[in-house]
Amino acid sequence: MIATLVAALVFTATSTITLATVPSNLRAMVQSRVELAVRRVAAQAQLGRLPAELGTAPEVHLLQVVSPTGKVLAATPDLHGDPPLLPVMPGRQPEKIYMTDHTLPPRLGESEEQYLIMALPVHTPQGLVTVYGATPLGEVNKALAWIYILVFLGTPLVLFIVAGTTWAVVGFALRPVERIRAEMAEITGQDLSRRVPVPDTADEISSLAATTNDTLDRLQRSAETQRRFVADASHELRSPISALRAQLEFANAYPEETDWQATGARALAAADRLTYIIEELLMLAKLDAGAVVQRRVVDMCHMAAEQVRRREGSRVPVILAPCHPAPVHGSPIQLDRLLTNLLDNATRHAATKIDFSVTVDDDKVIVMVTDDGEGIPPEDRERVFERFTRLESARVKDKGGSGLGLPLSREIATAHGGTLTIAEHAPGARFVVVLPLYEGGP
Asked: Which residues contact 406 (CB under 8 A, 6 or more apart)?
């Protein structure tokens, strides 16, 4: 519709200009030829050199010189012996051109035809005479007829062709889009493995199809991660709940044989583990959802010193290297959880000590937590950041872990525009956190 409307506007403007200029220009050309021939004969008559038989001019073959009484004084061969082209009309002003369209009898041509006739009264030595010139308008009328046919019949036909061609071309171009739409309509949340067809056109539609497939890939990975996360979370939550339920059922069935103090301690430990898992799951869910948290300037050096103070008297000492203020812009709660998780992990695996450092390097704050334990094999250094992933050594040393600490720590670092990686170190493992340095501003 838009293409047809644009074409209609263009054709309408062109047709209007054509109809306004071409007919008048064609008549002006004919008039100029006849007027030139008439004035040539009039000049001969004024000089008294008028022959009895006038010579023809290019495309003007009908010329007459007529006296006031209607007598033909001279004429071209085609008008030899014919009456005046127009009746004599007295009172015409000399030297003034008179012009009219007139149909001449068939004897002057092959058929009755319309002519442009021009009359010019002039004074001659023989007195006042009128010079007539005539030329057929057949060619002009044919040209105008073709113009009218092209404008009033050709324009609608061209518009119909433009509309049909555009409809067909656009339909053919959008056919891949319809196939993409149909395939997308068949894809459901239960089966995200299907992909839309990518046409071999190397254009915007093929880019759309490729982007759609990339989006489906991300959705499939997200859905698989979510299903695995739900399954793992269910498993991790089921174990402490089952243990707690078994303890309480035994105590309820044999109250006289139950050590209520020990049972309460075990139940409290199970409840603490459940609380820890639920808190980490909630924080992961918030990070996944991109929840906005209150951020402020946090001194990582001060926060590291607070972590060391809390761990005084723990199984292995935490040795904090001297540090200077290292401000970052972030959530104090999340950054504290990041350090807590890294130090808890190092405490489980360290043999004799944990080295802890906070440094500033250009526009980055670098936090390193290094233990002297058995280390992490290179092939597992990315796998430990997957949720609920626990290596065999971790399961042996701490059966109550959830496998959420390190994944949550990486999510927190990423949410703060930083990274969390495992660097090469022996003996033990070295976790490196890189965060952007806060350099002032609102």
From this structure: 341, 345, 384, 385, 420
CA distance 203 to 380: 42
Closest CA to 288 of 417, 411, 383, 386: 411
User: What pTM, to 2 d.p., does this model score?
Assistant: 0.49
The torsion of the CA quartet 25, 26, 31, 32, rounded to 10 degrees, works out to 70
Contacts of 163 (CB under 8 A, 6+ apart): 1, 3, 4
Residue 88 has φ and ψ, to the nearest 5°, of -70, 130
The residue ranges of the chain whose pLDDT is under 50 are 107-109, 442
Give the number of other CB atoms < 10 A from CB of residue 329: 17
Please compute Rg for the chain using Cα positions. Answer: 52
CB 371 within 8 A of CB 349: yes
Amino acid at 46: Q
Residue 442: per-residue pLDDT: 45
Phi-psi bin for 110: left (phi > 0), alpha (psi -120 to 50), beta?
A: alpha
Q: Please report, for residues 21, 62, 86, 120, 350, the alpha-carbon distance to residue 94 in angstroms, rounded to integers and kept in the order given.
A: 31, 21, 17, 7, 127
